[in-house]
Amino acid sequence: MKLTAITLHRIAMPLVRPFETSFGSQTARDILLVHVESDIGEGWGECVAMADPVYSSEYVAGAEAVIRDYLAPALLRAVDVTPESVARLLHFAVGHRMAKAALETAVLDAALRATGESFARSFGAVRDRVDCGVSVGIAPSIDALLAEVQGYVDEGYKRIKLKIKPGWDLEPVRAVRELIGDTLLQVDANTAYTLDDVEHLGHLDEFGLLLIEQPFVEEDIAAHVTLSAAISTPVCLDESIVTAEVAADAIGRGATSIVNIKAGRVGGYLEAVRIHDVCADLGVPVWCGGMLETGIGRAANVALAALPGFTLPGDTSGSSRYFAEDLTEPFVLRDGQLDVPQGPGSGVEVRLDLVRDRATREPLVLRP
Ligand code: NPQ
Ligand code: MG
To answer: What is the pLDDT of residue 226?
Structure first.
């Protein structure tokens, strides 16, 4: 396709409740949407970068700047852009995977809408419904945590994930395990621990957790090898896994026995599918992570989660977990599952009225 315009929308989506992790508390989602127009049609991508560079080095204003000044001009200059060529055209810029992923997803959406194929079919999905889990933030008290978890269990979520940090780990995990019986339970530290905590983290073994996600800083694969050897709870990497090669290396070294796949973190859905394939070859289960996406990003995540290697419930929650009103038709949980969109491209329609209403500035239109 030949791109004729790339429009950057910046919007604010209030969260239904504050979401606290080891790196801070969020009350609204500051989101960058990418809309591409081309000679074959249009498409949307959602950038998953957070407002601040606290989950990874990327942040939304930085993503917007790198797209505006470097990435969009490279795509707008190209005579022919395909979903498969986007990564190559953007390879000159180091990193900025979330920014690149948003562009590649918008191009993929446009290409598939033109041929009538769904994301699910294009990725290699084998299911039309996916099992869903929910990520639960650090709460003001154990009682408040238990009330929130009970609500999600009542809604039908098949797996609970608790955010933990030093000072908020063994006690909340014990209380939630007592509350939910044998419902699947896992924890996510978002890099809040150090090797000094190995013995302490070993006490999590008594709670029968599915996994502990990213206890140490993203660069320190070796620390995760040490922990994996020291405790029986499986270690799962999130932040550390930025390419299929890193995934294969981390698995080979014994740092991770389960992998969280987030397309934004790895530069797009094509790389996400490659990571799925590498993990499947190595016998490593994967699950689909989440970054508090609106229906636009959620649709693509649900399609990815329908691949055969996604054998654990993902952070692919219903729209109502985060937003009172979504930018698409809401994703509604039924029997702990979401339907995989089957329409062309992402399969969802963007509510342009809401994109306009929630805008925090005028759309930025970039042309060749
Ligand atoms: C994780 N997500 O798995 C992330 C981290 C995360 C669903 O737990 C605003 C935007 C707040 C993105 C908080 C989940 C966020 C965010 C946490 C992502 O590590
Ligand atoms: Mg995580």
So the answer is: 98
